[in-house]
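pasting for the record
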Amino acid sequence: QVQLVESGGGLVQPGGSLRLSCAANGSIINIVTMNWYRQAPGKQRELVAQISHEGKIKYADDVKDRFTISRDSGRSTVFLQMNSLKPEDTAVYYCMMYSAAWPDYEWNDWGQGTQVTVSS
C-alpha cells in the first residue's frame, strides 16, 4: 500500500484555476491507474480524471477541455490542473491509486481529500 498526501485545494472565483497534487509515499510499483475523484455535498463520489500506467488518459465529460491530469517522471505524484472553474466544480477532491499484484491481488489507496470551493 501507499500513503497519499494531497495538496492544492482552496477557494477560487469562477473562471479561476487551481492545481491539485497527490504524492504517493511507499511502494509504487504496483500502481495501475492514478485517479482523481470528487464528491459534492449530497452527491455520490465520481471519477474526474484517470491516467494509466501506460499513460492513457480519460476525463469525465463535464471537465474535458478544462482539467488536465498529469504525473511526474517518477510516476509517484499525480497532478490535476483545473482551469475555467465553475461553481459546480465545488467538491472535496480525492486522489485514488488502483494497484494490482500477481496473482490476483488488487486494492485502492485513497488520499485524505482536499476541498475545492468555486465561489464569488
